[in-house]
Design goal:
The protein is built from one helix and 19 strands. With 247 residues, the protein is mostly beta strands. The chain has a 19-stranded mixed β-sheet that branches.
Length: 247
């Protein structure tokens, strides 16, 4: 999802975000403050843009109520550029792909901040995008991410560095039925496959994958997907319903 830079916003950990029926947003902060934002004046760009390189997806029209995944922090690229961005994330979307709920492990300078190091944050990306503060990660740290349906069409997005026990979360209200579950590699401004992807590894596994449908555990039925142009032959492998990898 590509959202205009004027419509991308950082919010404190634990903020509740509600998309109103007119497209505006209400933000409820843990300290009791409330703020509002009008509908973004810029239409979002292609929902699954060119940066989606490879991913697995599980489509279930009955609707997800929970997803969780663990995935490791890979090594840094051997010769990173100042403009490259890598995102590895699990997430969920509705059937029209109009927004995504995602705990995101990132490398590079992104709208959420960061730099030439790994960090994780919780994101909601639709016609506006909201992200939590970042939690830093080092190579080998395991990330744990959950997307959990709560009452009244509300979802919680939690991102945790399991090694440091630091976590960040967002809550989003007025969420329609989520029918897609994903594990995704999203990459921007990559030109050299050997130097700009994680060094010394050819696989980023997502493990302990759990999906619930209508509150009941559902065995994921993953499908491998790619989007061209792929200059580095990015693709996925599916080991079993609870383990997939970006390779």
């Amino acid at each position: 999802h590509r959202v205009h830079k004027n419509c991308v916003h950082g919010v404190p950990d634990g903020t509740k975000i509600r998309r109103e029926h007119d497209g505006s947003f209400s933000l409820f902060y843990r300290d009791g403050r409330l703020s509002t934002m009008p509908r973004c004046e810029h239409e979002p760009m292609a929902m699954h843009g060119r940066a989606w390189k490879a991913w697995t997806q599980y489509h279930n029209l009955d609707g997800f109520t929970f997803m969780s995944a663990t995935w490791p922090t890979p090594p840094a690229p051997s010769k990173p550029t100042s403009s490259e961005i890598l995102y590895y994330w699990p997430g969920t979307e509705p059937d029209d792909n109009s927004f995504v709920l995602q705990p995101v492990l990132q490398y590079g300078s992104t709208p959420a901040g960061g730099g030439m190091y790994w960090a994780v944050a919780s994101w909601y990306v639709g016609d506006r995008a909201f992200y939590s503060n970042l939690v830093n990660a080092t190579t080998g740290d395991m990330m744990f991410g959950t997307m959990t349906a709560q009452s009244n069409s509300s979802w919680a997005i939690m991102s945790e560095n399991s090694a440091t026990k630091q976590s960040v979360s967002l809550e989003v209200d007025n969420i329609v039925t989520q029918t897609y579950a994903y594990c995704v590699l999203e990459a921007y401004n990559l030109f050299n496959c050997a130097n700009e992807y994680p060094a010394g590894t050819t696989s980023e596994p997502f493990t302990n994958l759990v999906t619930d449908v209508n509150g009941v555990s559902s065995t994921p039925q993953w499908e491998s997907m790619t989007k061209d142009p792929r200059i580095c032959n990015e693709h996925t492998t599916i080991t079993n319903p609870t383990e997939v990898a970006i390779v």
